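Per your request, structure below.
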C-alpha cells in the first residue's frame, strides 16, 4: 500500500510547473518549483526535519524539550509539525510585520508565539533574535535550531531540493532564482547545481533595503526574505548575482501570478518571480530558468490579497482624483516629506515648520526613503506651544520625549474623498506610496487642490 508512516514522510519531491502566462513572450521557458505542496505549506519543512534529526542525534534536544526559534512563520510551521509528531513544546518569536494568519497558524499547532517590533536592530534586547536567545536561557530543556547559523539548513537543500531540480529538468537548468532569507535554500541548492554544472547561474531575489542587495537592512514589507545581517547559512561564494525587487513589484507580481497562473503565492514568491522574469528576458532560447516558490499565498490573504491593505500602503490606485493628485498639485511649493529625527531638539522641529510653512511633522529615524515602520510619532505647533508655555527650555529636549502618536496614514492611490473624511477628525495625514512615507497633507492642501480643480474646470 502507498501509505506514508507519518506526515513527515510527505515532505519533499515537490512538482515543477511552467509559468505560461506571466512569462509569455520571453526568450526561454520559466518553470517554478512549487514548495507549497509540502505538509506545512512551505519549503521550510525540509530544514525543519533535518535540524531536529541532527539535534536529537547529538543530544541537543531531549524528550519533552522545548524548541525555541525566531521565524517569519514558515520555519515555525515546519518545526511545529515535527514537534507534534515527536512530543516537543514550541515557542516561536516573530516580528510585528508578519501577517496575523501566520501567528494564528502557529498557535493552531499548539505553539506559543511572541511578537516583537521589526523596527529595531538585531542586537537590540527587544529584537526577535535577542528575545529568542533570552528564552533559550530561561526555559529548561530549550533548544534553538538557529536556522540562520545551522549548517544543516543549507545541507538539507543540498541533499534534497537541489537533486530534485536537477533530475526534474534532466540537467537542462541554466539559471536558478530564489529569495534569500537565512540563505539556506539558495546556498544549498546553488552548491549542488554548480557541482553538476559550474555554468549554472545562481541568482538571489532580494527585497529593496536588504543587506544581500546592498541595503542597510532597514524595514520593508515583504515577509520571509532579505535580512538586516549576513547569516552564516548564506554562502556568498555560491551566488552569481543579486536582484533587488521593490515591495510594490513583489506584491503586484504575487497577485498577477495568482490570477493568471492559478498559483496562489505570497509576496516573497512574487519577489522571486519578478527577478526570474528579468533574468529570462536576457536569456537565449535554449536556456531554462527555474524559480523557487517557497510557500502559498494563503497566509497573506489579509495583506497582499486584501485590496484595502494594498491601497492603504499606496500599492493600488482608485479611479478618479486620488491623494497623489493632491501631493502633485503642490509640487515645488513644499518638499515631498519633511520630518524630524527622534533625537533632534524640539526647537529644530519648530524651525522646520516655520521654514516650510507647515504645522505638523512626522518623527522618524533613518534617511529617505523611509520605511513605514520607521515612523515613531509626530509633533505639531499646538503640541509644542502647549509644552513650551511657561518653560521655553523644553524646546531643547529631544523630540522623542514630547512627541504625539504617529499621524494617521492614507495611500497615495486612495480617493481624495477618503482624505476629506479622515481630515474631518485629524489635523494631517501621512501619505504612503509603494509602502513608504512620501508626504504629509492637511486640510488646506486638499482645499487648495479642489479649488484648482474648480478653476481649471
Amino acid at each position: 500500500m502507498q501509505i506514508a508512516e507519518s506526515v513527515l514522510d510527505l515532505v519533499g519531491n515537490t512538482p515543477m510547473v511552467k509559468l505560461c502566462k506571466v512569462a509569455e513572450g520571453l526568450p526561454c521557458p520559466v518553470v517554478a518549483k512549487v514548495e507549497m505542496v509540502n505538509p506545512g505549506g512551505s519549503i521550510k519543512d525540509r530544514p525543519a526535519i533535518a535540524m531536529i534529526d541532527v539535534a536529537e542525534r547529538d543530544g541537543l534536544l531531549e524528550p519533552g524539550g522545548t524548541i525555541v526559534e525566531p521565524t517569519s512563520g514558515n520555519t515555525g510551521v515546519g518545526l511545529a509539525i515535527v514537534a507534534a509528531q515527536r512530543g516537543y513544546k514550541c515557542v516561536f518569536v516573530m516580528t510585528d510585520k508578519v501577517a496575523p494568519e501566520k501567528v494564528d497558524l502557529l498557535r493552531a499547532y499548539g505553539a506559543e508565539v511572541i511578537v516583537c517590533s521589526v523596527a529595531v536592530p538585531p542586537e537590540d534586547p527587544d529584537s526577535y533574535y535577542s528575545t529568542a536567545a533570552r528564552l533559550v536561557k530561561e526555559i529548561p530543556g530549550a533548544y534553538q535550531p538557529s536556522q540562520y547559523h545551522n549548517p544543516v539548513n543549507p545541507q538539507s537543500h543540498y541533499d534534497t531540493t537541489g537533486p530534485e531540480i536537477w533530475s526534474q529538468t534532466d540537467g537542462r537548468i541554466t539559471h536558478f532564482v530564489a529569495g534569500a532569507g537565512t540563505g539556506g535554500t539558495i546556498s544549498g541548492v546553488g552548491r549542488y547545481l554548480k557541482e553538476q554544472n559550474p555554468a549554472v547561474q545562481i541568482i538571489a531575489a532580494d527585497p529593496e533595503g536588504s543587506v544581500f542587495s546592498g541595503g542597510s537592512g532597514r524595514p520593508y514589507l515583504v515577509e520571509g526574505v532579505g535580512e538586516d545581517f549576513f547569516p552564516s547559512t548564506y554562502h556568498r561564494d555560491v551566488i552569481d548575482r543579486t536582484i533587488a525587487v521593490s515591495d510594490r513589484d513583489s506584491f503586484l507580481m504575487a497577485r498577477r501570478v495568482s490570477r493568471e497562473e492559478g498559483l496562489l503565492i505570497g509576496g516573497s514568491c512574487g519577489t522571486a518571480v519578478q527577478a526570474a522574469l528579468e533574468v529570462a528576458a536576457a536569456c537565449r532560447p535554449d536556456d531554462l530558468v527555474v524559480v523557487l516558490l517557497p510557500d502559498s499565498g494563503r497566509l497573506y490573504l489579509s495583506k497582499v490579497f486584501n485590496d484595502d491593505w494594498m491601497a492603504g500602503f499606496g500599492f493600488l490606485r482608485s479611479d478618479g482624483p486620488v491623494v497623489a493628485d493632491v501631493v502633485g498639485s503642490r509640487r515645488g511649493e513644499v518638499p515631498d516629506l519633511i520630518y524630524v529625527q527622534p533625537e533632534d531638539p524640539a526647537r529644530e522641529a519648530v524651525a522646520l515648520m516655520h521654514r516650510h510653512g507647515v504645522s505638523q511633522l512626522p518623527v522618524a529615524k533613518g534617511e529617505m526613503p523611509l520605511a513605514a515602520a520607521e515612523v515613531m510619532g509626530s509633533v505639531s505647533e499646538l503640541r509644542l506651544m502647549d509644552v513650551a508655555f511657561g518653560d521655553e527650555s523644553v524646546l531643547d529636549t529631544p523630540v522623542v520625549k514630547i512627541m504625539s502618536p504617529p499621524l494617521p496614514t492614507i495611500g497615495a492611490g486612495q480617493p481624495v474623498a477618503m482624505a476629506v473624511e479622515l481630515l474631518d477628525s485629524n489635523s494631517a495625514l501621512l501619505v504612503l506610496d509603494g509602502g513608504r512615507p512620501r508626504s504629509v497633507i492637511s486640510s488646506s492642501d486638499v482645499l487648495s487642490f479642489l479649488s484648482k480643480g474648480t478653476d481649471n474646470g
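The longest strand covers residues 89-95.

Regards,
D.
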